[in-house]
Specification:
- With 278 residues, the chain is an alpha+beta fold.
- It has one domain.
- Helix content is 25%, strand content 40%.
- The protein contains 5 helices and 10 strands.
- Strands 1, 2, 3, 4, 5, 6, 7, 8, 9 and 10 form a 10-stranded mixed beta sheet that branches.
- A hairpin with a 4-residue loop joins β4 (70-100) and β5.
- The mean pLDDT is 84.
Length: 278
């Protein structure tokens, strides 16, 4: 077997039998938990076909002649973090009121300083622990249902590919803390309502880290090639959530854009005509 340094489970290229590299899963490299695959390869292929439906700007040839170069089920290493965020945020808000008088049309703008403060707890924040996987692609197929996680056993890897982590826990923590900060700011902002505009003026989010777990999450990866360009799709092997970028037919795009512009111009022309301005 010829593998790279992070391969933990693969298949024999001759007999297709599963092979598990136990040395990659011992000691500190042994995962705490694993979420088993619930969906098979057939479900991943069907999800790709559904993903191609209803895309008016997708090149017809891509859909009609699309073929999958590779499809593989992979247990992707993730770090899960528990954290607590203590935040204080100040916003500048406005409330606009309009009214008319016998002589004037008036706009009254009131200005407010709005503050929010408090503590939020976060559990099982996932961060992809493999440099092979694009972080944005892995985050796009979230969430995984952590309630279905079980204690790790190598038997779950049979028939699938698996990698051990190659991004250290402390390095991944930086991304986890960024996600905590962003989620905290979004949560606080959602409570500032009833204003015409809201602008953050000052934000202080302090993150305290708690327990960390090393887990394997199930992911189906599909690769296809069109016009000498590779397209990668990913499906959550537990929930079926499917993501991936698609090519755009430039001819259809411009036809759609110019068609929309033409319709808008016609509407404006008709309105101006009815108002007697033309």
């Amino acid at each position: 077997m010829i593998c790279d340094d992070t391969t933990a489970a693969t298949k024999c290229p001759y007999c297709d039998n599963p092979v598990i590299m136990k040395g990659q899963l011992g000691g500190d490299l042994r995962p705490d938990l694993v979420i088993p695959f619930k969906l098979d390869k057939k479900a991943a292929k069907a999800a790709l076909m559904r993903h191609l439906e209803g895309k008016p700007l997708l090149p017809k040839v891509f859909k009609d002649e699309n073929h999958i170069d590779e499809i593989k089920g992979v247990y992707v290493p993730f770090w899960l973090y528990d954290a607590e965020a203590d935040a204080n945020i100040r916003y500048r808000a406005t409330r606009v009121r309009t009214y008319t008088t016998p002589k004037y049309y008036c706009t009254e703008t009131s200005y407010f300083s709005v503050t929010r403060g408090g503590t939020l707890g976060f559990n099982h924040i996932p961060v992809d622990g493999s440099t092979k996987m694009a972080d944005d692609l892995m985050e796009s197929i979230e969430p995984f249902n952590f309630a279905e996680a079980v204690d790790f056993q190598t038997a779950y890897l049979s028939g699938y590919l698996a990698d051990r982590y190659d991004v250290p826990v402390e390095q991944s923590r930086t991304r986890a803390n960024q996600r905590v900060k962003s989620s905290t700011e979004d949560a606080f902002r959602s409570t500032v309502t009833g204003y015409s505009s809201v602008t953050p003026e000052q934000s202080s989010v302090r993150v305290g880290n708690g327990k960390t777990r090393y887990v394997l999450y199930p992911v189906w990866l599909l690769n296809t090639t069109w016009n000498n360009q590779k397209y990668t799709f990913a499906m959550n092997g537990q929930t079926g959530k499917f993501v991936g970028n698609l090519p755009t037919d430039k001819g259809k795009y411009w036809a759609f854009l110019l068609g929309g512009t033409g319709i808008c111009s016609l509407i404006v022309f008709l309105l101006l005509t009815l108002m007697g301005m033309l």
